[in-house]
Amino acid sequence: MRAAAATLLLLACCVAHAQPAAPPCGTIEQCDAAVRTTPSLAAYEQRGYLHLMQRRGLDDLEKSIADFSAALRFDASRPFSLYGRGMARLFSGDAAGQNEMEAAIMMQQNIAEEFKAHGAK
Q: d(Cα 34, Cα 121) in Å, to the nearest integer?
């Protein structure tokens, strides 16, 4: 009994201090390569985020929407992808993006803060 409690305490301590995984790519070009060789939720999310932050025009927003949509095909209940796609849609003039952002917040209340902090990684 005591050993089980110690194991649970150790596990809780380690989980609490675990750092999120680093993004698989740091630039759009690196993400393009990652998506070509080993497509993953993380690569699509990162590339979608980078296009959204770059947003030199409608083309970047469309690419961001496409990448976040691809990430959602990996995991449809992913708040980060839903929030990012919603933001890109809103910036592109699609008011329905607000609904996606609100749905992501319902799934994870601090998603806006996580999204904002993502760029600092």
A: 18
